[in-house]
Amino acid sequence: MRLPRWIAHRGGGALAPENTLAGIRLAAAMGFRAVEFDVMLSGDGTPVLIHDETLERTTNGHGRVCATDDRSLFALDAGQGERIPTFGDAARLCCELGLLTNVEIKPATGHERETAETVARLAADIWRETPDQVLISSFVPEALDIALELAPTLPRGLLFERVPPAWAGLFRSLRATTLHCHADHLDDQVLREAAALGVPIVCYTVNEEALARRLIERGVSAMFTDRLDRFTEGAI
Ligand code: G3P
Ligand code: MG
Fold this sequence. Notes:
Elements: E1 6-8, H1 21-29, E2 34-41, E3 47-49, H2 70-73, H3 87-97, E4 100-105, H4 112-126, E5 134-138, H5 141-150, E6 156-159, H6 167-173, E7 178-182, H7 188-197, E8 201-204, H8 209-218, E9 222-225
Parallel strand pairs: 1-9, 2-4, 4-5, 5-6, 6-7, 7-8, 8-9
Antiparallel strand pairs: 2-3
The chain binds SN-glycerol-3-phosphate (G3P) and magnesium ion.
């Protein structure tokens, strides 16, 4: 897959309310060719864009996302008057804008299977004709296993904070395409193994130019950033 060097993190990074349609539009307007967002199920089982299991940090609501019904959830302010988007609306917007979309399946604890099934089925439908425009990732290997089963033609990214020594076996069994990890926890051994296998590494979250340059020198293929003002495509 052709991976742009820069991926706008949580939609519009730090320049817009996170995981909102306004953020996605901003990323495209600023020249980004790829965005990442997080998807979780509402209490009604609707896949929506949100990062935390609870509503407090990013909205004016309270309580757990997975225990909030759609009527209440979609009435909330997710920042600057933005609503929490459905995954379907966000995905269709990315398609319209021509953005490569990294869909991070972010299940609430205990909802891993249903979240992955719902997201994989919808993603398979939305990107049926354009599978090279999406990348499904998750910290939860079970979610990627389900994506492999239900949306086999869509590429998968295996996501860790720190890549474990036995990553390659899991990577192979999930038939993953990319390996994602925290920029501060990328060791040389993993870099060597990934290079030998031809596996692109994608690091989060890179907001400083010095760090970006170092990672590129070390062979990292792409990076997630919150700083859309610093890292428009082609900047580094
Ligand atoms: O998918 C990369 C990155 O988004 C993972 O961390 O916590 O921002 O979802 P987080
Ligand atoms: Mg994420």
